[in-house]
Design brief:
about 375 residues, Metallo-beta-lactamase, Chain A, six-stranded mixed β-sheet, 12 helices, 16 strands, binds fe (ii) ion
């Protein structure tokens, strides 16, 4: 049974999520008063079908499931569209709002075409709530982030931006609360490296967000933590600089071999320090701990032979897991040794290794990736 919880972000805006999962899903409900008696209820990126029963109950408790007016999806992936047909059955007056590119694919769910409203046919790509007010949603194209027909949605009145997968995180921070802190970045970076197609597409989308006036104060992604305050600009700036998707694959061709040498040099160092048996046992334990998720590295015959995600990110994850339960002195020794090996291969040292940490980064994260295949 899914554990679904709802949170009021501001009056009339709710987050509904499954907080217990490593890779979490966020749906949002916006309930806007049109006059004293009528509200417009818009559901963004519904939770997937596997959460359906509890998701419906959460909506029912907030507004009554039959009162949804609009169901919006950023793109066509099943994590946000699989519940749409059943929700449309329960919410008879609701229509389905999405892009034509998305509809071409989601129409495969056999949704009544009369209930589909394409974004592209809205005047100026704005959905005005009434003739007499400026209250509206603005649809911001974010092409190929990560789908061709993806649109973020801006609600200027609350200065909130619903971004779908863009600015989503592969993990949430471990500390309580729904808002991102600086530890959320690791999950955001990893998610974009894996799911965004190219730096160019990502930069185009970031540029679109940067042009919004006023600049959004809250970013509401479909995965991970809600981003607010100074972190909005901070994370946008950082995303503007990272390599993702195809960039990483192209770069990987050049750099992967070097990173594998870094991994194996570190492994040799750890074996000489703790003994081969102890190191292999530790790696096995890490692997068991993180089962059922995609892997990060592959170890064959005690040697690292493959890296499945951007190697610098993989290194930080494995390094942190390896350092768990080591003494502070040993952690510092491993950190300095890692820096020396990166320098030896003329690779830039991952930022996370440059400063001394007293606690584990992974400890603070709910990670989705299984680090090792042995
Ligand atoms: Fe997606
Ligand atoms: Fe998603």
């Amino acid at each position: 049974m899914a554990d679904i919880r709802s949170y009021e972000i501001v009056e009339g805006l709710y987050l509904i999520k499954n907080p217990q999962l490593f890779f979490n899903f966020n749906s949002y409900l916006l309930s806007c008063p049109l006059d004293q008696n009528i509200k417009l209820n818009i559901l963004f990126d519904p939770l997937p079908l596997r959460c359906f029963k509890d998701f419906v109950k959460a909506i029912d408790d907030l507004i009554g499931i039959e009162n949804i007016d609009i169901i919006y999806t950023n793109h066509q992936d099943p994590d946000l569209t699989s519940s749409v047909p059943a929700l449309l059955d329960l919410s008879k007056k609701a229509f389905y709002l999405t892009s034509q590119d998305t509809w071409r694919l989601t129409s495969g769910y056999n949704i009544d075409p009369d209930r589909f409203q394409p974004i592209e046919l809205l005047p100026n790509r704005k959905l005005k709530f009434s003739k007499d007010s400026d209250d509206c949603l603005q649809f911001i194209p974010t092409p190929f982030c990560h789908f061709r027909g993806a649109y973020a949605v801006y609600y200027p009145k609350l200065k909130v931006l619903f971004t779908g997968d863009l600015l989503g995180g592969a993990s949430t921070k471990k500390s309580e609360g729904i808002y991102a802190d600086k530890d959320s970045w690791v999950g955001i970076k990893l998610f974009h490296e894996v799911y965004m197609p190219t730096k160019e597409a990502l930069r185009l989308a970031i540029d679109q967000i940067g042009r919004l006036a006023p600049i959004p104060e809250l970013i509401l992604p479909q995965h991970g933590d809600i981003i607010k305050g100074d972190l909005v600009i901070e994370f946008l700036k950082r995303l503007n600089e990272i390599d993702v998707g195809l960039d990483y694959i192209k770069k990987e061709e050049r750099e992967k071999e070097l990173y594998i040498r870094v991994f194996n040099d570190m492994l040799d160092y750890a074996k000489s320090k703790y003994g081969e048996k102890a190191v292999i046992e530790k790696l096995n334990n890490i692997s068991i701990q993180m089962s059922n998720y995609p892997e990060i590295i592959k170890i064959e015959n005690g040697v690292i032979s493959e890296v499945y995600i951007p190697p610098a990110t993989a290194f930080v994850f494995i390094y942190d897991l390896f350092c768990q339960h080591l003494s502070e002195k040993d952690k510092e020794d491993i950190r300095l040794q890692s820096i020396a090996i990166f320098k030896k291969y003329n690779l830039s040292v991952p930022e996370e290794l440059l400063y001394k940490r007293s606690s584990s980064l992974v400890d603070k994260l709910r990670i989705i990736f299984n680090p090792i295949r042995i």
